[in-house]
Amino acid sequence: MQLVVFGLNHKTAPVGVREKFALSHDDVKKILSLTSYYDSIREMAILSTCNRMEVYAVLDDVPEPCRFLRNFLGKMSADGICEEKYFYCYTGEKCIYHLFKVTASLDSLVLGEGQILSQVKKAYALAREMQTTSTVLNIFFHRAISFGKRVRTETLIAYNTVSVSSAAVSLVQERLGSLQNCRVLLVGAGKMGELTALNLRAKGCDAIYIANRDEQKALALAEKVNGKTILLENVVPSAADMDVIITSTGATNYMIEKKDLLVAMEKNSNKRLMLIDIAVPRDIDPDVKDIKGIELYNMDDMEEAVDEHRRLREHEATLATAMLEEETLALVERFNYLSFQPVMDLLSNRAEKMRKREVKRALAKLPELSSEEIRILDNMTQMIVRKILRDPMVQLNNSAGTSGEEYYVQAMKKLFKLDTLMEKSDEKTTYYWDSQQQACSLAGKPCQNNSGESS
């Protein structure tokens, strides 16, 4: 088995590429539903946000897991192309490290931002709903989410954090100065739109207009910031009356196109208009930047705006990174143990059945024993079994992730005649962590096949 992540983010791909792989809730459900047609895919979860799209998978031993996932994702993308230069792929321990880094918001555009943890939870919940996770990803995501919470609790990385929405407002201030007489139109009343509206109001903007597909949602947000609403179809015609338009919708097509904005701006040829597009996929046609008087900014431009705030939290990020390495190693050890847990469980269960059978036979010959004496006898036999099994269990545990692991697993099966029990157990169990391949993968070592050659 191989634990793999394949994806792209704001560090590796510009917004024009990221938007091609921005997946909606329904898109993710559709992709996950197709995994049952691939024998090589054991488990899968997909994380899709404004700044990243990542596929986490547990695969059978495919020769090139990264190429496999790139081809798989290419079939799901709009143009069928996954240009290698924009993507990253990590396996084993590096995959674990990466997701932990993501949930701790150490890999975010805005260091310390809080939304990513919620987004990871939702991605995992959807994969669970679609029944595409099992032992490995369940353990993996639970630990990653717990680690994200731990970082936010034990460090100040989230203290005084800046969000993309506040960075957008800061950009407006930097370009226009005071917001007191600034007319701002927000297109989109979701979480990002709400945070932007609140930031604008806090900075003194008293002319906020809200447009949204759901008019009631727009009205509710307008009331919260003492603003006004306009109809979605009036966004472009109203452009010449605004100083700033900030978009953050979930639309898959451009909300503002060049040809329409060109007509609207002809009303006032000397008008200057600032457009900030913080949606992925983008809401604004990038060609509008060619219109006289237009300044256009998108998500890629937000990175510079948050750099100063990032520097203020670098010390806390260092503390979080130390915790990250500790948690990664702990989970690697957990997964290494998972490789031989079925053998240990079967051995323990077999020994326990034998113990109970012999105790039952002894009690049949000793009817005069009191309840207390029976309890003492039962406890004594339990301790004998535990002590006999202790050394083999410790030896097997110590071999996890080493070149000797497979030797000890096979020896245990033969010595205690567990092969038959394993076959019967496999009929009832849909999944076991592959002892050799996954342990090798997590340890970052080549695996040996039966001929002794590296695979």
From TrEMBL:
Q: Which segments constitute the Tetrapyrrole biosynthesis glutamyl-tRNA reductase dimerisation domain? A: 320-418
Q: In which pathway does it act?
A: Porphyrin-containing compound metabolism; protoporphyrin-IX biosynthesis; 5-aminolevulinate from L-glutamyl-tRNA(Glu): step 1/2
On whether Oxidoreductase is a keyword of this UniProt record, the answer is yes
Which ranges carry the Quinate/shikimate 5-dehydrogenase/glutamyl-tRNA reductase domain?
171-304
Instruction: For this entry, list what GO says about its biological process.
Output: protoporphyrinogen IX biosynthetic process from glutamate
Q: Name one GO molecular function term.
A: NADP binding
- The residue ranges of the Glutamyl-tRNA reductase N-terminal domain are 7-155
Q: Catalytic activity annotated for this protein? A: (S)-4-amino-5-oxopentanoate + tRNA(Glu) + NADP(+) = L-glutamyl-tRNA(Glu) + NADPH + H(+)
Q: What is its EC number?
A: 1.2.1.70
Q: Where is this site: Important for activity?
A: 98
Q: Which residues form the active site?
A: 50
InterPro entries cross-referenced by the UniProt entry? 4pyrrol_synth_GluRdtase, 4pyrrol_synth_GluRdtase_dimer, 4pyrrol_synth_GluRdtase_N, GluRdtase_CS, GluRdtase_dimer_dom_sf, GluRdtase_N_sf, NAD(P)-bd_dom_sf, Shikm_DH/Glu-tRNA_Rdtase
Q: Where does substrate bind?
A: 49-52, 108, 113-115, 119
Q: Which UniProt keywords apply?
A: NADP, Oxidoreductase, Porphyrin biosynthesis
Give binding positions for NADP(+).
Answer: 188-193
Q: Which CDD domains match?
A: NAD_bind_Glutamyl_tRNA_reduct
The entry's family comment says: Belongs to the glutamyl-tRNA reductase family.
Looking up HAMAP family in the UniProt record yields: Glu_tRNA_reductase
Return the domain comment text from this UniProt entry.
Answer: Possesses an unusual extended V-shaped dimeric structure with each monomer consisting of three distinct domains arranged along a curved 'spinal' alpha-helix. The N-terminal catalytic domain specifically recognizes the glutamate moiety of the substrate. The second domain is the NADPH-binding domain, and the third C-terminal domain is responsible for dimerization.
What this protein is reported to do is described as: Catalyzes the NADPH-dependent reduction of glutamyl-tRNA(Glu) to glutamate 1-semialdehyde (GSA).
Subunit relationships? Homodimer.
Q: What else is known?
A: During catalysis, the active site Cys acts as a nucleophile attacking the alpha-carbonyl group of tRNA-bound glutamate with the formation of a thioester intermediate between enzyme and glutamate, and the concomitant release of tRNA(Glu). The thioester intermediate is finally reduced by direct hydride transfer from NADPH, to form the product GSA.
What is the name attached to this protein's record?
Glutamyl-tRNA reductase
Which species is listed as the source? Candidatus Avacidaminococcus intestinavium
